[in-house]
Amino acid sequence: MVSTRSAAVTPGSLTYTDFPWIIEHREDRCTLCGQCTAVCPKEAIRLSHMRQRLPKLDVMGKKRGSDYRTFTGIRQQTDMAHACIGCGMCSMVCPNDAITPVPGTNENRTTFFDNQKGEPRKRGGRRNVSGPTLLDRIVFDRISMLTDPALDAGRHEFTITTTLGRILSPEDYLDRKINGGWIPATREIFPFVIGSMSFGALSPNMWLGLLQGVAYCNEVLGIPVVMCTGEGGCPPWVLKSPYLKYIILQIASGYFGWDEIIRAIPDMQCDPAAIEIKYGQGAKPGDGGLLMWYKVSKLIARLRGVPEGVDLPSPPVHQTLYSIEESVMKMIQTLSMAFGHKVPIYPKISASTSAKSVLNNLVRNPYAAGLMIDGIDGGTGAAYNVSMDATGHPIASCVRECYLDLAAQGKQNEIPIFAAGGIGKNGNVAQNGMALIMLGASGVHIGKYIMQATAGCLGNEKNRCNVCNIGICPKGITSQNAKLYRRLDPDLVAERVADTFMSISTEVKKIMAPLGRSQSLPIGMSDALGIADKAAADRLQIKYVC
Amino acid sequence: MCRLALKTANRPFSPYEVLTAMEAMQEGYDGSGLGLLLRGMEFEDFKYNPKFPILSGIAHTEKGWHQMTSFMEDRGYELKYDHRFSMHPELIEANDRYRYFVRAYRMPERFRGIAKEKQEAELLKTRLALRKIGEENNDLSVFSFWPDVAMIKEVGWPLQIGDALCLHDGQIKSRVCMAQGRQNTNYGINLYACHPFFIQGISTMTNGENTAFVPIKEWLLGKNITGYMGYQSDSEVFAHILHYTLKKLKLPLAAYKHIITPLSTSELNSHPQGDFLKGLRDACKRLVIDGPNAVIGTLPDETCLLVMDQKKLRPATVGGKKGMWAIASEICGVDAMIPDRDPSLDFQPMREHTVIVPPDRKELLIWSQHDQLPLPLAA
Fold first, then answer.
1. What is the average pLDDT score of chain B?
2. Same domain assignment for residues A105 and A224
3. Which InterPro entries match (chain A) (predicted)?
4. Contact assignment for B284 to A168 by CB distance below 8 Å
């Protein structure tokens, strides 16, 4: 026996019921195949030898005694490094349904120990707030019925594309057409864009799957989906391929991957869909990008021009720029020039109170092609937990305010506003996106939803999984470890991309048809929106319905 | 759904003819209102000079009436003719109508010989100023102030209103007459909300509902163009889009259809001016109407037009003969206006068509959006 005195009881000692996820294991069903322990990305469970006393009672001989059996069973680790993340991979591989993680109902005592080695918790994923979001609560209540017939989503033709790129005012357009002036480049795209997830954040298989899916949507299904690379460049073969036209290249404050991109310009077969200049991200406003060393593989290192296995933090701001004027004017103009003024260049910022001032600056910059605003519910590959949970600004009011600001100037047609951050958080992707569009966005970016829908990302807003940062993604979506990402078949991801966009497209029609809209996306059609929350209705200038 | 009727003829005719067409189509509306626009005026008791702007509207009180007359005098307008309707007030539902007026003025001395655009701006500003005065105490409604145009709007059955104002007595005639039955019912009853809508000589009326009303309205309001206001009806924006196309963008009439119902990208890819039209569609994207509507309008030169929404979800027919044409929501309306035409030549436009009755009224022009746009700069 082990004496109680010799058991290691330290300030950080916890039992497995203190953990947010507890492994439930049924010994009677377990065949000890070991698949669960092999698949567990956190090594939260291990096979261990256990001893069990078997009481031995000889009634006739009036003797008592004990027998012991030694066997192999499954134990949950109780140290922070091996805390179960609830991903459920163990139950996925178990042939006998003998094991599954369940959420701990005890108060989550591990929170106090998330700062191991003095480092606050970092994770990937999204803000851990579950339940319906404001976007989920918006309803479309202006239904054509008696005064006018609703359209038929299945029978009528619908135009569900939006414009990415600066649109001139009608007067300017005609003036430049007559006098031979420059007409800014625009793209007609599907309003749901695959948001920026970098080639470092995503595994090569995931990225390839997305790209294949996007190409299929465009070339076979006729749905002009585009995807954004995020920071970190783009594989050289893609830069030189005809698929580049479906890709928005992102430049962020770390400039990772941009050497490759600039060098590839002469060899590009076509222009990219657009260039996104990232100034901020909704999940971690005021913070730069972060690719943790676990994920800086040989391939990523080569692509980004950095050594292997080092953390790659991007600064919170573009270090060469001192002011908003410079950021907007200098950077946008320079990039526009680099691509021969043929590619829309737009900035991405975090939703915040300064979004309007950025927007007003863009309105006065003839080269600015749009504004992408990312709200507090946006996702990330890696950030400090506190940033994700407690810093930022919700997307709906930010977009609405910006749109109304443009509308007051009669310029809402000119700078398209794209919105992101929590679209489809609870699965209602078309509803959330269309609500934002009717609040004034020209389109939306979706990231986490795409990972969930196309690759079965296990993360949710109940603190499940969230390990995108350390490269142990149990599904192989955000890992650079070949052993893990080989779990993901790019072809199947591509198939899901097509499924997803086909169904979004159908749902969008099902929203537009009853409103009587078919020829143009109902951008700013706020008269169609209602919400059972007086304060939100007033703030968003939509109807209060209850 | 509203019913619409327009008749245009070389020889002036009584607006009562159009009201009989409204009566023929009476099953299509609920008698909640009438809007009439007359253009190419002729008065029985006055030799009208078509350069004189005509002010038309309703004074609801004597005070409103005096405010209006003194405002016009102060602004330097000289009254040349004041039409007196032979009234049957008992046929009017509303009881706050002091006087219906159609008054022709001579332009103030200071506007003689100045640029046409400035004169037109003055006429618009005067109408808006009067509207503002009327809105203060709700005692005056001014529908139009423009040479050779008169407008009448009232709540009730069209024919009954015609009888109330004795429009059958031949005192007023016109070469173009547009009528719409039904008040706007989507947004509160308001005389200004009654079709047709008018701005600087350009007028349209519509049946159906404009589902893209709010974004279009917000965009037009944001342009801060004088007169782009009101919007008591969801289709008032059609008149303003037409005005914007012709007067502000100075595009030909054929561009109107391209702006309100642009062709799809694949259609434009094979259009002779696809590149230009794609740019125009993007630049004017907020003006896409989405429908369902049939839009009927007239221009200052007495051109008349009819266009459909992109899905063609509203009926409209045009028919007639040399010198005389009619457009109506239903064939029975056209029959009532021009019974002796060859009905086999009636035309029901499809989604890509713009039907034009040119000022000479010799023959109908049908423009397709797939045709070359008559626009030198687009080439």
1. 91
2. no
3. 4Fe4S_Fe-S-bd, 4Fe4S_Fe_S_CS, GltB, Glu_synthdom
4. no
| Domain count within chain A | 2
Q: Which residues in chain A are contacts of B223 at CB distance < 8 A?
A: 410
User: pLDDT category, B188, cuts 50, 70, 90?
Assistant: low
Prediction pTM value? 0.94
Q: Which two tokens stand for residue A520?
A: 């143009």
* Residue A156 forms contact with B (CB below 8 Å): yes
| Contact yes or no for B286 and A413 at CB 8 A | yes
What does the pLDDT read at residue B378?
47
Q: pLDDT category, B291, cuts 50, 70, 90?
A: confident
pLDDT tens, B323-359? Answer: 999 999 999 999 999 999 999 999 999 999 999 999 9
Q: Binning pLDDT at 50, 70 and 90, where does residue B38 land?
A: very high
Do A143 and A21 belong together in one domain?
no
Q: How would CATH label the architecture of B3-48+148-368?
A: 4-Layer Sandwich (3.60)
Contacts of B249 in chain A (CB under 8 A): 170-171, 174
Mean pLDDT, rounded, for B203-228:
92
Angstrom distances, CA of residue B238 to CA of A26, A376, B277: 71, 40, 20
Indicate whether A481 and A332 sit together in one domain: yes
Q: Tokens 């400035």 map to which residue?
A: B118
Interchain contact B115–A (C-beta under 8 A):
no
DSSP strand pairing (B293-298 vs B202-208): antiparallel
* Residue A6, domain member (yes or no): no
Residue A220 is which amino acid? V
- Residue B140's DSSP bridge partners are B59
Are A390 and A504 in the same domain? yes
B219 — contact with chain A (CB < 8 Å)?
yes
A106 and A253 both lie in a single domain: no
Question: pLDDT, tens digit, for every residue of B130-173?
Answer: 999 999 988 999 999 999 999 999 988 889 999 999 999 999 99
CB-count burial class (<10 Å; 0-12, 13-18, 19+) for B194 = buried
**Domain annotation covers residue A451:** yes
- SS percent in chain B: helix, strand, coil, step 5: 35, 30, 40
Q: Are residues A532 and A390 in the same domain?
A: yes
Residue span of the structural domain in which A107 resides = 16-119
Q: Does B208 touch chain A (CB under 8 A)?
A: yes
Please indicate, yes or no, if residue A42 is contained in any of the structural domains: yes
Distances from the Cα of B246 to the Cα of A432, B242, B355, angstroms = 39, 6, 17
Looking at CA atoms only, how far is residue B89 from chain A in angstroms? 32
Give me the residues of chain A with pLDDT under 70, please. 1-4, 7, 146-149
Give the largest Cα separation in chain B, rounded: 61
Is the CB of B209 less than 8 angstroms away from the CB of A144? yes
Chain-chain contact of B248 with A410 (C-beta, under 8 angstroms): no
Shared-domain flag, residues A429 and A305 = yes
Output the domain CATH number for residue A263.
3.20.20.70
Q: Indicate yes or no: CB of B215 within 8 angstroms of CB of A159.
A: no
Instruction: Report the alpha-carbon distance of residue A368 to residue B113 in Å, rounded.
Output: 45
Nearest to A148 among B261, B285, B292 (CB): B292
Chain A CB contacts of B221 under 8 Å are 407, 410
Q: Indicate which CATH number applies to the domain containing A88.
A: 3.30.70
Taken in order A399, A400, A401, A407, the sign of the CA dihedral is: positive
**Type of residue found at A542:** I
CB-CB under 8 Å, A159 with B290:
no
Q: Is residue A5 part of a domain?
A: no
Task: Name every chain A residue with its beta carbon within 8 A of the beta carbon of B209.
Answer: 144, 147-148, 516
User: Do both A115 and A138 map to the same domain?
Assistant: no
Interchain contact B49–A (C-beta under 8 A): no
Q: Taking 50 as the threshold, does the pLDDT of residue B379 lie above it?
A: no
